[in-house]
Design goal:
By secondary structure, the protein is α+β, with helices and mostly antiparallel strands. The protein is built from five helices and nine strands, in the order αββββαββαααβββ. Strands 1, 2, 3, 4, 5, 6, 7, 8 and 9 form a nine-stranded antiparallel beta sheet that branches. The longest helix is centred in the last third of the chain and has 15 residues. The model has no long low-confidence stretch (mean pLDDT about 95).
Amino acid sequence: MRKDYRGIHDLDESWLSDGWEPLLRRWMHDAVAASVVEPNAMVLATVDEQGLPASRTVLCKGVTDAGIVFYTNYSSEKARHIAANPHVSATFAWPLIGRQVTLRGDVRKISAEQTARYWDTRPRGSQLGAWASQQSRPTGTREDLEQALDAVAQRFAAGPIPVPPDWGGYLLSPVSVEFWQGRANRMHNRIRTTRDAGGRWTTVRLQP
């Protein structure tokens, strides 16, 4: 089960001359143009209190030069891991276009105001789901979940739905961003840019 990646333009260090953010945005745009399903999906890896790693797919909901933003329940398993160890990694994988980006760095909560602005853009069903689910907690049956959703739907009726008190966003501020581009004969292109303690970025090419 192998794919021999090919392409016209080879990833070059000069592509990061303006920093990592413009190139990440460009590649995400290319993924959208190629009709990649969930092009903003990323695998978020955390480490629990015992040092055991865990990973799951979440959606990136913001990209700035400060980092990438995602949202979750602050009582979820991933949130508990972050509270114990705020160092994480996130990987965007787009096999359809032969590209991948991995960011590693620190995570912190964003402001309640920023969370509220995003919350107002969410579909009503997603808002209700955030209230109904105690994310990562055990549950009995699927019917229990459906009943919880029905209960919050009745609670808020047709009125506005506020942000749950234990729900919000995180900002991943990268200290390392690696861009991977598939190439023939497994001679892939890998370029990593790393931020030092003084905030300066250094870019290097890595062997595949």
